[in-house]
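Before the break, one more example. Copy the sequence into your notebook; we will annotate it together after we see the structure.
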Amino acid sequence: MNTIYLSDYKGGDDRARFAAALDDAKKIPGTTIFVEPGTYHITTPRARAAQDSVMSGEYGDNPQPVMFSPDYIYDRGLDFDGHEGTTLAADGVLLLVDGFMEDVSARNCRGVTIRGLTIDNKRRPYTKGFIKEVGNGAAKVELTEYMPQTAPIMRSGIYSPKYGRFVPDMRSVVKVLSNDGREAAVLLKGDTSDAVGDEVYFCHTWHSRPSILIENAKDILVDNVTIHCHAGMGVTGFHSENVTLRKFAVVPAPGEHHSTNTDATHFSSCRGKLVLDRCRFEGHGDDALNVHTYYYTVVEHFGNRAVLEVRAPTGTHTQALDYPRVGDRMDLCGAKSLDVIKTYRVTAVEADEKRRVCTVELDGDLPDDVNGYLLADPDETPEVEIRNCSLKNHFARGFLIKSRKCFIENCDFEDIFELGVKVAAESSWHEGVNVDTIAIRNCRFKNCGRERAVCGGVHIYMETPERTTSHGYAEITDNHIDCPECDHGIIIKDIKQTLLRNNRVISRKDPIVIGDNVEVL
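Here is what the structure looks like once it is written out:
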């Protein structure tokens, strides 16, 4: 085995030293890059300029359309492009990133292991403050660092040290009334009687480039890696196969309570196995995991040949073009129900990056009138295994599952804004597909769902205009769901069969709700 040491690379900044070591490792498959413990500063002029452009308001009140587009130019920190079998051994290493960039990029590679790394930002993509005074529904917030008056504020969250969590069910920021850079006045709604001392987090971005990208990659292991914050998602995977996150964490830095500005992890159009083992998620601005493929719209067709486009509201989650592989299945689905009408095989594919479409040939003709139909590639969804993970005190949902097979075991969900596990293809986001089999076993859900207060534990359905029974089978056994402020602990609809056994559920209304057409085994 070939081993190289980062300390042997002299001259230049830390990013240049990593780049030189990565270039050498790329030449010899199976190389280990050993990085001595310590803090390494990763920056570029473009990355700093991007952050300045956001904070100055140059990118507008919402920077996402600029930063989350196929044409956006950005820099990468550590780039594993073209690597085979490389291991980055970085236990005790902190990457301190100055500016907005893609911190780690594992693209067009296979057999890459990234181990031990911690990632944080010099100037985090949010601003923190403390409520010092409350009166007449308004509050004065003392900021811990300078926040320009021009800085966009995409989301605000209030963390209460008294309750040890974010408190969207109790109070929230309606709008920022004023900001002089060091102190802000905000309008609050809800109970403000004990708000003094609460922490307020102002997030300045939605989606942008992820902290770690895994794209067109195979057999990737992210091991004992921690992301403290990022101006977008933590890990985004796309068109990749066999990815394992082991002892991976998206959690706030010590003394902080906010982590990434959007999803902790997001995997789209992947295949093989996706494994989350002993992972921790806390304080992020959206789901802990969203796994799905996309529904294609048929732009034009002639017989068995069709031009397809992903019309998701913000495009794909890496802004790369999505297209199936030759030999993949292709399901024809009703647009309103997402029911599978017919399944084809893909016999040829042509990608058109310029037009952002792909052309496919199928082993059969499409209907003459394709209005009211979508196409989906179920082979672009991985088999998901999630075990021994903990989720705590973050926005949105825990695990959002749109993959044909999923297994979740021995996980802890606590104080999540919405519910713990949502199983639902979403027609509005053009994200699918329905599940064939899902098992949720020996999990614990505590005080989840306070923000929406409908379901705290597990909700299985299809988020579609028309009701359906698209899902196949769900096994939900030996779970403890203690969500007394939610209407229900478990809701199961739009599925053919379910097995419920030994679930302890506490809720304020019916603990378990079963749809009329669901067969309970």
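The first strand starts at residue 3 and ends at 5. The mean pLDDT is 96. Try to locate both features in your own notes.
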